[in-house]
Write a structure and sequence with these properties.
Layout (H helix, E strand, L loop, with lengths): L2 H16 L11 H10 L5 H14 L3 H5 L3 H8 L5 H18 L8 H5 L6 H10 L10 H9 L8 H11 L5 H14 L18 H9 L2
Helix pairs in contact: 1-11, 2-3, 2-8, 5-6, 9-11
This protein binds iron/sulfur cluster (SF4).
Length: 215
Amino acid sequence: MTKKEKVAVVLDLLLEHYGPTKCYLNHENPWQLLIATMLSAQCTDDRVNLVTKDLFQKYTSIKDFAEADLAELEREIHSTGFYHNKAKNIIACCQKLLAEYEGEVPSDLDALTSLAGVGRKTANVVRGNWYGIPSVVVDTHVKRVSNLLGLTKNQDPVKIEFDLMKIVPKEKWIDINTQMIAHGRKICIARRPKCGECFLFPYCTGGQKLAKETK
Ligand code: SF4
């Protein structure tokens, strides 16, 4: 089986088990998605959704965040971790959106990554999930699952993004992220993958290697 054939089967199986998925971060507009994604670094989506429920009621626009009091915002997002940097970046990011982008969230990758605290992963979340632009998001689940499956040998998220873009058809770029997250949460759990009940086992080089080692 060639790598392309394997990818096609894996994508079909992921779709069959998890369906066309949607972004796990609650949002109603692009700036809410941008801020929620910034908050999600080193934090669970559930925790971010809990925090943004109140946060987006208090701050109802990019301008509100641009004018936020740093100490107050830090307190409000404290439970998401790395709150000092996150609060500082959110304020600086929103100030730049107001000053240079007329208060709109751009869809261009370079423009997005020029914003404070916005890397390729955050930019790709916004581009894919809000603007519908095919984008591969590499988070901790995608990194782990795609390595175990043998779809990449790289550990660097940007290299993994490019590896996946080469072998995954463009129309699947957005879904593969949310489906791999679902798989990483339910079955291919970090450090204790449930290979025995995994529908991807016949195609998974990492899972087969683990099974041999534990025999
Ligand atoms: S077979 Fe094991 S390692 Fe491979 S994807 Fe499934 S759970 Fe993860």
